[in-house]
Amino acid sequence: MRDVVKISQLEFDKDLFANFMSGTTLDMLLCSYRGLPKGVNYMVIGDPGVGKTTIVLDLMANIGKVQPRARMLFVSAEMNEIDLSIYVRRYPKFGELNIMFIEADFESDDHAIADFESVLDEGWDIVAIDSFYELQGIIKEEENITLKKAESLLLAIIKRHNKAANRRHIHTSFLTIQQVTKSGAFVGSNRLKHMITAMMELRLDNPKNIYSDRYITFSKHRRGEVGVKLYYSLTRTGDVFFDDERFDKDSKLRHLQNEVSTQLHEYADRFNRLFNNIHNDEQ
């Protein structure tokens, strides 16, 4: 029998609401009160080559600079050591991140799911997975189970660590990169969608042109706004460049549009009240 509770009666540690800050404009999109919250699951999707891995690594590296005590882990199920070493050449700050490489190994008695759980049990503030689909596939093959079962195992692990079921009692936040279809749609079950706190999408202004402007937006967000765009560039060495000036202009324009919309609604309400009064008087 499930307990029935009132939200007003629930108590949480205040530290649970102290977000991780990156010191960039991206903090404003990650949460309405800025930064990456604790114990949440953010899915990152986008077309190939748009910069999903780079954005996630950059976010983690920046958080590490602002909050050096934050324990972060990048789980790579797609790229090997050589692949990621190229990232470090271009973005040296990535070199200080903790990375766990996971590859299918059918000859060893140690399986990916056991290694993954063992490392997570150490207790991490932020864990990034690149990608969920690849890790799910590795677990499927090694354990000889269905994709659905592999997904269930992964989601159960993530949920436990969201709720601080690890040795350090840390409410872990997960940044999971996920595959998309050719049309750019999210790949995953309804259960996976339900587990997601926010869906971060990396998109191109012109999907047919890989060189067109790129932006970050949220299509689902339990902790912030949806539809707001933050443009970025990967052409610079050392850091992801966020177009703060463009973001500020867009923010002011949205604020102005909201003010105009509010005024129009007020005028419409006044007109309706006046019309109803006139109509009542005539009757």
From TrEMBL:
SUPFAM superfamilies attached to this UniProt entry: P-loop containing nucleoside triphosphate hydrolases
Q: Per its UniProt record, what InterPro entries does this chain match?
A: AAA+_ATPase (IPR003593), P-loop_NTPase (IPR027417)
List the SMART domains: AAA
Residues of the AAA+ ATPase domain: 38-206
Could you identify this protein by its name?
A: AAA+ ATPase domain-containing protein
